[in-house]
């Protein structure tokens, strides 16, 4: 009988990932993980190879959000791991399930200055829910199971698996490998069986009573509800009760932005006057002004729905419900069904929100109707909005929005009608996520078009990944708002232009009229340079129909933008 070929740590890690449901991976290969990526591909896992670990990490985090299953990315040791921390930390802040797997130096050489040596477990700790090192090949399957489980359980977040070089080179027999995989699977299933969440029935009744008796109730929905896929349950609650709703930026699309009960265009009124606010899958952080006056009405009673009891303890709402957004909404709907109520369109609160929304929308449309050339931000954004709305695909495109003015204006102008079709800088306001997010969306939703609307500064962080788009022929159209710098070109006053380096470009300036589209063309993709409405309309029509990697370089007046950081809501 022929002797069975031994299985090394690379193969066992790849088998473990496949067994526990990983279908796509992102990353940058090199010593000591190249073989792991190759083996994963041979086992049916798609590997998307990036130029930079940051972008790979951003892609994995967004993939975790879009699919509700952990996004996995692979890095080399030392600096590769450090670069990957950008994506891992972004996952943690946004509470998206993500796993970073890094190779590391030989365990016997730790402390001796080995190649790319770093105590990676210590390095990742501030950014992870859970981190583990496989110290022997026999530990690999269980370690893989643990990081995937921890990433998605409770409040999702980033986890880390360390695979030392010597462990990847260790071997076991095929039968030993199967035993290890079987044992790890059994243990993982047992852990899931022991994890149950039970809602507090008395609090459900309390919340329904608050809503029933409120004069000005409001439902706020965030990306946690989108992650939970709670759109059907949310629709039922909103339309049964007639309560206006307000989405956070990435909660947009859970219900259509143009829904008759949407309060987005009347945000200031909604949060400034509501007396009860049910916040579902969103945190009372800077994005929601910490739930404090003067933005929020004094004395508003918050009902906070969150998967994390720690979050509820931190915010101290009037009522806190620990649970998954979808589960909580289902329970609320059942409670209301027995004794329904509805505010109705003539209710003073609903009427006030409706009138303010229409008033502000009318003002915005008046601004958008002006055709300004050279382009400001509004004119091309309106053209992009219309092109997306008129797109004839069976599913709405995924919109990736990144930048300062570009993202701020896009949030107000672009319309989301389907859930999980908007990705932006998120809770951390992270710049550089754009191309990674585009790739994640294209991989997660291969039948959808992906449209990125990027500022030139945000685009520059990850622009080299346009080659990745071409290499994998992903249906991504990247629209760059090119205004010559961060917020625009040189905004300095005369008194600020002095000193020995006054001849240097301003800190906010880029090369004027940069040919971003030619970079895409260099790799075999399609590029457009546009500066008029007709040119932009033609480029959008052609690129949307082609569904091929494209960069549309939209030349913007460098003085059209302004410095932007925290979200400015004037409605």
Automatic annotation (TrEMBL):
GO terms for biological process: fatty acid alpha-oxidation. Gene3D superfamilies: 3.40.50.970, TPP-binding domain. Residues 13-122 form the Thiamine pyrophosphate enzyme N-terminal TPP-binding domain. Keywords: Lyase, Magnesium, Metal-binding, Thiamine pyrophosphate. Its cofactor is thiamine diphosphate; Mg(2+). Residues 205-332 form the Thiamine pyrophosphate enzyme central domain. The keyword Membrane does not apply. InterPro entries: DHS-like_NAD/FAD-binding_dom, HACL1-like, THDP-binding, Thiamin_PyroP_enz_cen_dom, Thiamin_PyroP_enz_TPP-bd_dom, TPP-bd_CS, TPP_enzyme_TPP-bd. Its EC number is 4.1.2.63. One of its GO terms (cellular component) is peroxisome. Residues 403-554 form the Thiamine pyrophosphate enzyme TPP-binding domain. Homotetramer. Belongs to the TPP enzyme family. This is 2-hydroxyacyl-CoA lyase. It comes from Vicia faba (Broad bean).
């Amino acid at each position: 009988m022929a002797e069975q070929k031994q299985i090394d740590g690379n193969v066992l890690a790849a088998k473990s990932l496949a067994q526990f449901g990983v279908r796509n991976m992102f990353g940058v290969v090199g010593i000591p993980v190249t073989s792991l990526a190759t083996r994963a591909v041979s086992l049916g896992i798609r590997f998307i190879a990036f130029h930079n670990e940051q972008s790979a990490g951003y892609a994995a985090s967004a993939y975790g959000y879009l699919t509700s299953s952990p996004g996995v990315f692979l890095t080399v040791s030392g600096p590769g791991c450090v670069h990957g921390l950008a994506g891992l930390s972004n996952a943690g802040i946004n509470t998206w399930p993500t796993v970073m797997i890094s190779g590391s130096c030989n365990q016997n050489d730790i402390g001796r200055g080995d190649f790319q040596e770093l105590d990676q477990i210590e390095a990742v700790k501030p950014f992870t829910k859970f981190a583990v090192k496989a110290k022997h090949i026999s530990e690999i399957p269980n370690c893989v199971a643990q990081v995937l489980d921890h990433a998605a359980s409770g409040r999702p977040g980033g986890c880390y698996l360390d695979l030392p070089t010597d462990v990847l080179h260790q071997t076991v027999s095929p039968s030993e490998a199967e035993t290890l995989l079987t044992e790890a699977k059994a243990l993982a299933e047992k852990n899931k069986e022991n994890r149950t969440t039970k809602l507090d029935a008395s609090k459900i009744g309390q919340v329904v009573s608050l809503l029933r008796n409120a004069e000005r109730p409001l439902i706020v929905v965030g990306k946690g509800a989108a992650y939970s896929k709670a759109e059907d349950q949310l629709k039922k609650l909103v339309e049964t009760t007639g309560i206006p709703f307000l989405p956070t930026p990435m909660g947009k699309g859970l219900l259509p932005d143009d829904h008759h009960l949407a309060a987005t265009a009347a945000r200031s009124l909604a949060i400034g006057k509501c007396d009860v606010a049910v916040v579902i899958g969103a945190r009372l952080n800077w994005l929601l002004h910490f739930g404090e006056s003067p933005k929020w009405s004094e004395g508003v009673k918050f009902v906070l729905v969150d998967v994390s009891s720690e979050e509820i303890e931190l915010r101290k709402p009037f009522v806190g419900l620990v649970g998954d957004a979808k589960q909580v909404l289902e329970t609320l709907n059942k409670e209301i069904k027995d004794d329904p109520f509805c505010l109705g369109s003539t209710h003073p609160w609903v009427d006030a929100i409706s009138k303010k929304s229409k008033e502000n929308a009318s003002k915005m449309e008046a601004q958008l109707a002006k055709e300004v050339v050279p382009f400001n931000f509004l004119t091309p954004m309106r053209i992009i909005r219309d092109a997306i709305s008129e797109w004839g695909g069976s599913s709405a495109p995924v919109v990736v929005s990144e930048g300062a003015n570009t993202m701020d204006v896009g949030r107000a102008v672009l319309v989301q009608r389907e859930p999980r079709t908007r990705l932006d800088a998120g809770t951390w306001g992270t710049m550089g996520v754009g191309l990674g997010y585009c790739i994640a969306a294209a991989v997660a939703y291969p039948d959808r078009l992906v449209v990125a609307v990027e500022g030139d500064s945000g685009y520059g962080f990850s622009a080299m990944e346009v080659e990745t788009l071409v290499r994998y022929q992903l249906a991504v159209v990247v629209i760059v708002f090119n205004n010559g710098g961060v917020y625009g070109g040189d905004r300095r006053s005369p008194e600020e232009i002095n000193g020995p380096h006054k001849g240097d470009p301003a800190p906010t300036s880029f090369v004027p009229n940069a040919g971003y589209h030619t970079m895409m063309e260099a790799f075999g993709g399609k590029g457009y340079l546009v500066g008029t409405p007709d040119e932009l309309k033609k480029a959008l029509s052609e690129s949307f129909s082609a569904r091929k990697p494209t960069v549309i370089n939209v030349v913007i007046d460098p003085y059209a933008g302004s410095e932007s950081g925290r979200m400015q809501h004037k409605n």
